[in-house]
Specification:
2 copies of one chain form a homodimer. Chain A is built from 13 helices and 12 strands. Chain A is of the alpha/beta class and 366 residues long. The first copy, chain A, has 3 domains: 2-71, 434 Repressor (Amino-terminal Domain) (Orthogonal Bundle), CATH 1.10.260; 82-182 and 316-344, Rossmann fold; 184-315 and 349-358, Response regulator (Rossmann fold, 3-Layer(aba) Sandwich), CATH 3.40.50. A 6-stranded parallel beta sheet of chain A has the order 2-1-3-4-5-11, with helices on both faces. In chain A, β3, α8 (152-160) and β4 form a beta-alpha-beta unit. In chain A, α7 (125-137) packs parallel to α8. The longest helix of chain A is centred in the last third of the chain and has 18 residues, at 317-334. Chain A is elongated, with a radius of gyration of 28 Å. The first copy, chain A, binds a DNA duplex (30 and 30 nucleotides) through residues 25, 27-29, 37-41, 43-44, 47, 51-53, 56, 71-81.
Chain lengths: 366, 366
DNA sequence: CGACAAAATGAAAACGTTTACATTGCGGAT
DNA sequence: ATCCGCAATGTAAACGTTTTCATTTTGTCG
């Protein structure tokens, strides 16, 4: 009612062309014109209400509500030189290893008034480069990266624009590259120690592709180092590098089960591969943990609910997201580089690992 | 070398203040100045290279590379009146039911040159409202929503800015609200029919909170209608509404297992609850599927790998994401409202459901 | 009632692009 | 030589804000 009257009283002086296409944006100018004030006053009403006379303020606010004014964050960003967005880059969203991580970042950012732009690289360097460029074009105020190893070109690009960033899921040795993470190497050592102390000596490895994934690389390195330190030594036959898929874990396990002598345990460097491996054992009648101990990594929510529940490494995905965000936002505020942090991991012992003594002797399947 | 010479020859006229804070943005103006051309020519070089003389073009491009120029998408958006972003709103990212969906949207958007802004509502209406507002401020070119039922206020807000949107995961009856989805009701009917045709008559339900989740509502409605149609009728004791957590499915199942006479099957309206329910059965020594058939919904990737593999409803999460994006992008291009679409679902029969005949008689646990 | 400080408001410049329109320069047709 | 047309380039106005500085209004005190 009211707004109809006002609208007819004051005719729009702006071009009416957009009308037809339905894209009539209500701007601060329109509000100002209707209220009979300048745009500065409207802006102040919205951002610093105490600076405008209550009477004027109320009149303006009424019109703002009436016309469903929504400010244009793009224009604001342009002048304020802050986009209010944070870019986050993860390798994959499927299987939700990164879901909790992303969620905690989104939450922390939301609370601080930031919006999150997520990029998914699918473990591809070229895609990552493209995505980073796009985020930088969008003038993200900060960047959360997964892993540390990547072409120097990307870091150069980011640095060149002075955009603060933190890496995660991998502790950085380079002081120029801040990281908020847990120690993959140490955690994997713990995992191996767990298997070792159960009496396992012949231990297989199923991990991600270590050439394009530094988390996989570190976990594999720990596996090899551990075996070397225990004077066992690693064996190429017992090491499988696979893509991040249930079916790959399954295939890797099938292959390992054909090796003679058969190992008594397998360290899967992520839970997805571990669940796939368990599936293979079930299909082939290999009892877990009696015939084969399986150790996972990540503490994916579902590992508690598979049969048997999986022994794994709990990684602080949520707190890592939260801490990385805090560190990044503080860096944005202060102008200093983000603080690094190393978070702890835990071995979560469930039912997929058991002492070697319990092992049943069994004919080879093939 | 070359740029050092050029840089020293022409001193910067822009304010040098930002230098110290590290936020020296290389603009089109700088490039233009260094190349000795106008900004228009630089802009043309970048966006319509054929319009500028090869010689000039190469000179400009060299400087662009040299100075690591990155265009400011915000400024571009402001003048082009297109942000190049799509907003996507989902209730949760944990447990990855929506992961494939999000991923396919991101992929389709990426290919079309759009960036995705994701919002997570945690099943909260007020949070959804807040997130939508924030996305609208960011001037998203389109919006993908999950579910249809929400306060009219949100739709009003979106419509008011003329932003095209599609809803997903729920077929809309309202012609003003386009949806690209599958039919939860029909799919649930299929699920019930599957159990019924195996001989099950006493069937329990574990579903999400139907008051704030229209997918849960529809699935529950189908459950009730099916039983009514078969003249069985539903029973409040056998219907549990739970939050989206493994542990909730577990608790619900425990409760249902105490009901006398015990049902022979349970329809879980999502896989997360189903896996939780299976866990409860395992803990209590209830054999699945011999003593209890469990039917899931969603075909979460892990359902294939739990023990026993879960019978479930395959929903077209990926193609829904892709189709919704296509429909939305076309709407953005044409200015017409997005086209609706109904996608098919399938019953995926695995090992968690079996005919009632196989049922072993067993003492009550308590 | 006048003066003056404080409060309220306005004008205009910036933010970094794109683009319509204007200008320039050049080759070829007359 | 003159003119035309076209290609190449430049000028300047947008886009929707915030913010500095100037100006006007208000209120207070002597």
């Amino acid at each position: 009612m009211e707004n109809a009257r006002l609208a007819s009283k004051k005719r729009s002086t702006r071009k009416e062309a957009g009308r037809a296409s339905g894209r009539t944006q209500v701007t601060i100018h329109e509000i100002a014109r209707e209220a009979g004030v300048s745009i500065a006053t409207v802006s102040r009403t919205l951002n610093a209400p105490e600076k405008v006379r209550p009477q004027t303020r109320e009149r303006i606010l009424a019109i703002v509500r009436d016309r469903h004014y929504v400010s244009d964050a793009l224009a604001v960003s342009l002048v304020s030189r802050r986009s209010g967005t944070i870019g986050v880059i993860i390798p994959t969203i499927i299987y939700s290893i990164y879901a909790g991580f992303i969620h905690s970042i989104q939450k922390a950012c939301g609370e601080a008034g930031y919006t999150v732009l997520t990029g998914i690289t699918e473990y591809s360097d070229t895609l990552e480069d493209e995505i980073v460029t796009r985020l930088l074009e969008r003038r993200v105020d900060g960047l959360v990266l997964t892993g540390v190893s990547r072409g120097a070109g990307i870091y150069h690009k980011i640095r060149n624009l002075g955009v603060p960033f933190v890496t995660t899921w991998h502790v950085s040795k380079n002081p120029d590259i801040p990281s908020v993470s847990f120690d993959n190497y140490a955690a994997s050592m713990d995992a191996m120690q767990h298997l070792y102390s159960l009496g396992h000596r012949r231990i297989a490895l199923i991990c991600g592709k270590s050439d394009r994934n530094d988390r996989a690389f570190e976990r594999r390195r720990a596996y090899c180092d551990f075996l070397r330190r225990k004077r066992i030594g690693s064996n190429a036959e017992l090491m499988e590098e696979r893509d991040f898929e249930f079916s790959e874990g399954e295939a890797a396990m099938r292959k390992i089960l054909r090796v003679e002598p058969r190992p008594s345990a397998v360290f899967c460097a992520n839970d997805i591969l571990a669940v796939g491996a368990m599936h293979a054992c079930r299909d082939l009648g290999v009892a877990v943990p009696a015939d084969m101990s399986i150790m996972g990594f990540d503490d994916h929510p579902v590992t508690e609910h598979v049969t048997p529940p999986l022994t794994t490494i709990r990684v602080p995905a949520d707190s890592m997201g939260k801490e990385a965000t805090r560190s990044l936002l503080r860096a944005i505020d202060t102008g200093k580089p983000p603080a690094s942090k190393v978070l702890r991991t835990d071995v979560v012992v469930r039912d997929s690992t058991a002492p070697t003594g319990k092992r049943r002797t069994r004919r080879k399947a093939s």
